[in-house]
Amino acid sequence: MNKRIIYELKGMYRDSFRVTGYEYGTGEKSVCIVGSSRGNEVQQVYCCSLLVKKFKQLENEGRIKEGHKILVIPSINPYSMNIQKRFWPVDNTDINRMFPGYDMGETTQRIADGVFKEISGYKYGIQFTSFYMPGDFMPHVRIMDEGFSEASVAGQFGLPYVIIRKVRPYDTATLNYNWQVWDTQAFSLYTTTTTRIDQNGSGQAVLSVMNFLAAQGIIKYNVPQLLKAKVVNDTDMVSVRTSESGIFEPLIKAGGKVTTGQPLANILNPYEAEVIETLYSPVDANVFFIHNEPLTYANTAVIKLVQ
Amino acid sequence: MVKTITSVGLPIDEILEIKKNRIMPDSPSGDMKRISIVTGIHGDELEGQYVCFGLQQRIMQEKENLSGIVDVYPAMNPLGIDSVTRGIPAFDLDMNRLFPGNKDGNMTEYLAAGIIEDVSGSDCVIDIHASNIYLTEIPQIRINELHEDRLVPLAMEANVDFIWVHGASTVLESTFAYSLNSTGTPVLVVEMGVGMRITKDYGNQLIDGIFNLMQKMGIWKGNTKEVKKPVISRNPDDVIYLNASTGGLFIPAARHGAKLKKGSLIGRITDPLRGEVLDEVKAPADGMLFTIREYPVVDEGSLMGRILKKEACGYE
């Protein structure tokens, strides 16, 4: 294992901003794994820390195959994590909206550029990322509908779902999108949580990366019999929306099955505890996403279902 | 007449309403033109608040000269303005990356769609921004090159110092201005002043420009002031960006808007802990300092200023 500083920026009063990477093996740049890019992505940095530990073990046991290099960067934004702010401390910009970066540009453009120079050229790129809305997810792999990441390859993670995301204009500055522009097959891994550590979810995420690397012949690891991932276009998900704001009372959990007409959640009047709205399932489906904050706004897709 | 254009209930005993004030002539005709003044998409940019106030004051003083419709939308992001927040509070989203919105989308997309629906069809829209809390800008209009032919003639009437025609960018396709411009409603994006402050001189300058534009459009029959002839830049090489070579405290030495000689001092990046100068920021070429940093703390890469090269400015 080679631990080294990928990118560094001097602070005025704070310690230097450092992006630290862990390299394993030598040879072809096979896979790069990036953890948190936002300050609240605690589960994402934790998943990477488990991978750092696991790869160290695999390397010691001679189970990283010859000719393959693996790079893990647990966080590209420790400054924001340390002050519990989602975006960049000074100007609130999102590093994951700055790729491929610009070395003469503004701070987060420079960070993106410095990091991207180190992480481009890999055959596969895996990013642990998070959704901007608070909620619990079914673990899944996301790929963009433009580019050459294949759903069949994404299925090798062994997670229950592969989501194909329709590219929106603001996606074009993300790491996932730009990895693909520069010939890296990119996969975004969404685990169960963001701001809290979920041991089971992180364990599943680590195993999914092991499954993938084994399938690609990068590590020696006995992959269990995997279920075939369900491939879903994000535009085909069934969103269940609130029409009222209030206290959100979920009646189901992510991963559960629901039937048509089943009550999914109540919205309560925050002063009088009366149910002002009940959300029902419009279809027989699996619960893919559910809002997990105590309050909700009107017009919000608090539940997403996959048929 | 004040009207709520879109609204949504918040969780605890509050309704979020986005409002406009429509000012009509006392004797309206059937085929009047409409100008819309929009601001407050970013909650920390307040220069447009003064323009909304000042414009309406002057219209009401000479209401007999009004011959069209003036719609004033001072607060597209009311939660942001009232909580000193640039984006939409609770969502930490930049509202100007949500357009054209979606009536069936989440709360923020729903509001954005309501805004677009109401503003669409205006004969001209002025979308007033104030840079951000870090930078001060001279009054300028920024135009996507895709919409240059239609917008530059309008911008010439708006009494700004500078028209910056910039390249197309996919990321910018989700802005308010792009969404409307691409569907036929002309929007001029004004940047002037600085976030969280009001620069009255700039506000009055733009108000004069809006009256001139209104007169040219047939919305205003009263007298207007002669407007400035703006510098127009279409070439990306006209603009020099001054990014910090290191983190520190930036202390400006040049005046905003100054015409600088190559090598003249713009400011210093200093280290207050040791009392040292870390870098002297000098003009790399002759030109006008049209952007200057207002917020003193810089990281490496932070923008400290922009210079429009002398040959683009056209001054002697």
Could you describe the 3D structure shown?
The complex is a heterodimer of chains A (307) and B (316). Chain A folds into 2 domains: 2-232, Aminopeptidase; 237-306, RNA polymerase II/Efflux pump adaptor protein, barrel-sandwich hybrid domain (OB fold (Dihydrolipoamide Acetyltransferase, E2P)). Helix content of chain A is 21%, strand content 32%. Chain A contains 6 helices and 18 strands. In chain A, the strands form 3 sheets. Chain A has a 9-stranded mixed β-sheet with strand order 1-2-4-3-5-9-7-8-10, with helices on both faces. Chain A is globular. In chain B, the strands form 2 sheets. In chain B, strands 1, 2, 3, 4, 5, 6, 7, 8, 9, 10, 12, 15 and 17 form a 13-stranded mixed β-sheet that branches.
The description of the largest β-sheet of chain B is: 13 strands, mixed
Average the pLDDT over all residues of chain A and give the rounded result.
94
Looking at the overall shape, the CATH architecture of the largest domain in chain B is 3-Layer(aba) Sandwich
Average pLDDT reading of chain B: 95
